[in-house]
Amino acid sequence: MKNIEYFKGKSITVVGLARSGLACANLLYELGARVSVTDSQHSEITAGNAKRLKSSEIAVELGRHSPDFIKGRDLIVISPGVSNESETVLLAQQLHIPIISEIEVASILCPATIIAVTGSNGKTTVTTLIGKILEAKGEKAVVCGNIGNPFCSELHRIKKNDFVSLEVSSFQLERIDKFRPKISVILNLTQNHLDRYPGMQEYIAAKKRIFINQKESDYLVLGAQGKVLIELAREARARVVYFSRTDELNPNQAAVLAVGSILGVDKDLCMRVFSDFKGIEHRLEEVAQVNDIKFINDSKATTADSVIWALENIRRPIILIAGGRHKGIDYKVVLGAARQKVKEVILIGEAKKIIADSFCGSLPIDEADSLQEAVDKAFSKASAGDCVLLSPMCSSYDMFTDYEERGRVFKKVVQDLAKRETSR
After folding, report:
1. N or C: which terminus of the chain carries fewer CB neighbours within 10 A?
2. Quick one: pLDDT band at residue 167, thresholds 50, 70, 90?
3. Is 11 helix (H, G, I), strand (E, B) or coil?
4. What percent of the chain is helix, strand and coil (3-state, nearest 5)?
5. What is the dihedral of CA 394, 397, 401, 402, to 10 degrees?
6. Which of 191, 224, 133, 193 is nearest to 325 (CA)?
């Protein structure tokens, strides 16, 4: 690591004790900071993570945010899920205490070349593939960030000549200060997180912070087919490289190839990596085939565009399981693709009524109170040759801790169904 004295002796509160908060708190303690942690949730996860803190010297509160955990601090580090309207954020702002994100902490300490990827859809796939093409070239690449393993948790194994392929969300970018990737990538910008942002302009403003600190020697990789992205190029100091889908490449592959060209990775090598890539968990992941009915886990699809992508890339008739916590998106944009492929929609979660109202008169709709019930209903309605697709269009936080838990529950339910049918 570099700048290892930067946080030493500072009094720092980490707000949020999920994965990134835990990793950040432990790292800051190891570097000699005086660390406190506060989380408004007192759950099995936060209580378990509290036990994973490296020292009893780290003060912890769960189930509330006390002013005493903010007052007198030199720095506040907030986790991505913490709202800008949170009482901790508002108090810190009143007291003029700097607030940064976990990726800002990690970037201060990171000695390696950072390639940062953001966008409304495709981030995880592109971040993963960038790591794979670098490894195929013989480089050491650490894939981390919003993809699941926090940046702070990987710093101990990152060296100067390595590369970091980093997935970053708009929430994480809101609280950067000096974060400066060598290569930043914005894949696309579509309706997303409008439960957090007043409108698209605010969402776009958060995303474009990925290149705010870049200089003329850095690179900004943008989709060539998005008017908003092309307009963003005018604001960048970095050298802009465009990508676009072709008959040979989907948009994710085109973006990776553009990054590869900057890094000197041979196109043929990239194409071999694309050919060998089997996909990522929870993204169009085939779980099982039961009585010639295919079950696909697309739990990571939390936007309308990602669901459209799934519908366009599945050749079978579809029973769609959707729903969760509403993110302010317009579900009607899905109807064009859905009318051609979807036989019926089974809705779960808090957004059931909103989605049902959006789809009313266009698609047959049923509802379920649990994912188990939704899978059972979908199986009873499906015919041989159909596909049951979990592609929620919503966040998971009404019923699950994250999209990964939602995907794991779906897979377990489907696997249990497959065993029952096999034993008949």
Report:
1. C
2. very high
3. strand
4. 40, 20, 40
5. 20
6. 193
Query: Residue 172: which residues within 8 A CB-CB, separation 6 or more?
Result: 80, 101, 102, 103, 145, 146
Residue 165 CA to residue 142 CA, distance in Å, equals 6
The string of pLDDT tens digits covering residues 213-260 is 999 999 999 988 767 888 889 999 999 999 998 989 989 999 999 999
Cα separation, 214 vs 57, in Å, equals: 38
Tally of domains within the chain:
3
Question: DSSP states of 129-184 as a string?
Answer: HHHHHHHHTT--EEEEETTSS-HHHHGGG--TT-EEEEE--HHHHHT-SS---SEE
334 assigned to some structural domain: yes
Evaluate whether 210 touches 118 at the Cβ level (below 8 Å).
Answer: yes
Q: What is the mean pLDDT of residues 363-391?
A: 97
Looking at 246, 276, 306, the residue that finishes a domain is: 276
What is the residue range of 171's domain?
104-276
Q: How far apart are CA 375 and CA 385, in angstroms?
A: 16
pLDDT tens, 294-341?
Answer: 999 999 999 888 899 899 889 899 999 999 999 888 899 999 999 999
- In this structure, is residue 4 part of a structural domain? no
- pLDDT at res. 261: 98
Q: Identify residue 238 by its one-letter amino acid code.
A: A
Question: Is residue 363 domain-shared with residue 321, that is, in the same domain?
Answer: yes
Looking up tokens 């005086």 gives: 34
Query: Which of 3-17, 100-114, 212-226 comes out lowest in average pLDDT?
Result: 212-226
Residue 209 structure tokens: 């912070």
Q: Do 178 and 104 form a contact (C-beta atoms < 8 A)?
A: yes
Token pair of 223, please? 């989709």
What pTM value is reported for the model? 0.82
Average pLDDT for the chain: 93
